[in-house]
Design brief:
It is a single chain. This protein has 245 residues and is an all-alpha fold. It has one domain: MetI-like fold (Orthogonal Bundle). It contains nine helices and no strands. The longest helix has 36 residues. It is globular and about 70 Å long.
C-alpha cells in the first residue's frame, strides 16, 4: 500500500491530481453550508423549543419540514432562475470569474459560493431545527430547570444551562450532516458546475472512469470516518457524562 490511486482512464492524469483540488472545493462548500444550516437550525430550534405551541414554534417547524422535504437540486435550479437569470445578482456556475476553479478570497469568488451554499444548507437546517427543538423542549421540562428558575436565576442564565446540555447532541447531528454534505452534494455541484468531488464523480460515472470513482469514494469514506471520530471526541469534551471506559 503506497497511497497511489492510479490514473484516470479519461484524462491519463493521476487521480490524486484531480482529486486534490476537488476535495478542497467540496470541503469549503460543505463547511460553509453546514455552518449556515447549523446556525439557522439552532436559532429556529432553540426558539421553537423555548416557546412551544406558539406561532413561532409552528412557523419554525413548518420551515424545518419544508427544508427537509424540498429536493435541493430543484431548489438550486429555482434559485438560479431567480437570482441569476431574472435578477442577475449572483453567478450561476463555477467557482470563480470565467468559470475558473481557482479559489480566491475576494467578492468575485465569494459570490459564486452563495447560491450553492444556501441550497446545500436547507436540509441540515431543517434537520438541526427539529433536533434542537426536541432537545430543548425536553430539557425545559426537566427538574433542574424548574429548580434554577425557583432559585431566581435569570432567563439568560437558564438559557445558558439549556444550551450546555443540548450542545453535545446538536454537535453530533451537525457532524453527521457535514459528512453527508461531503458525499451527497453531487447533484447540487452538478447544477452549479461547482468543481468539487460531486462534479468529479458525476463526470467519472458518465465516462466510466473507474479509478476516479474508486479513489474519490475511498477518500470521502475515510473523511467521514475521521469526522465521526472527531465529533465523538468533541462530545466527550463537552459532556463528561458520555465518557467511555
Amino acid at each position: 500500500m503506497v497511497g497511489d490511486l492510479g490514473r484516470s482512464l479519461a484524462t491519463g492524469r493521476p487521480v490524486w491530481a484531480d482529486l486534490h483540488s476537488a476535495i478542497g472545493n467540496t470541503l469549503m462548500l460543505a463547511f460553509a453550508a453546514s455552518t449556515l444550516g447549523f446556525v439557522l437550525g439552532c436559532v429556529l430550534g432553540g426558539l421553537a423549543g423555548t416557546f412551544r405551541g406558539s406561532v413561532l414554534d409552528r412557523t419554525a417547524v413548518g420551515v424545518a419540514v419544508a427544508g427537509v422535504s424540498v429536493p435541493h437540486y430543484w431548489l438550486g435550479m429555482v434559485m438560479v432562475v431567480i437570482f441569476s437569470v431574472q435578477l442577475n445578482w449572483l453567478p450561476a456556475m463555477g467557482a470563480g470569474p470565467g468559470g475558473s476553479s481557482d479559489w480566491g478570497w475576494d467578492w468575485d469568488h465569494v459570490k459564486h459560493l452563495v447560491l450553492p451554499m444556501v441550497t446545500l444548507s436547507v436540509i441540515p437546517m431543517g434537520i438541526v431545527t427539529r433536533t434542537v427543538r426536541g432537545i430543548v423542549a425536553e430539557i425545559m421540562n426537566q427538574e433542574f430547570v424548574v429548580a434554577l428558575r425557583g432559585k431566581g436565576l435569570t432567563r439568560w442564565g437558564v438559557f445558558l444551562h439549556v444550551v450546555k446540555n443540548a450542545a453535545p447532541n446538536a454537535l453530533a447531528v451537525m457532524g453527521l450532516q457535514l459528512g453527508y454534505l461531503m458525499g451527497g452534494s453531487i447533484l447540487v455541484e452538478t447544477v452549479f458546475s461547482w468543481p468539487g468531488t460531486g462534479l468529479l464523480l458525476n463526470s467519472a460515472i458518465f465516462q466510466r472512469d473507474l479509478p476516479v470513482l474508486q479513489g474519490t469514494i475511498l477518500v470521502l469514506a475515510m473523511f467521514f470516518v475521521v469526522l465521526n471520530l472527531c465529533v465523538d471526541l468533541m462530545q466527550t469534551a463537552l459532556d463528561p457524562r458520555i465518557k467511555r471506559g
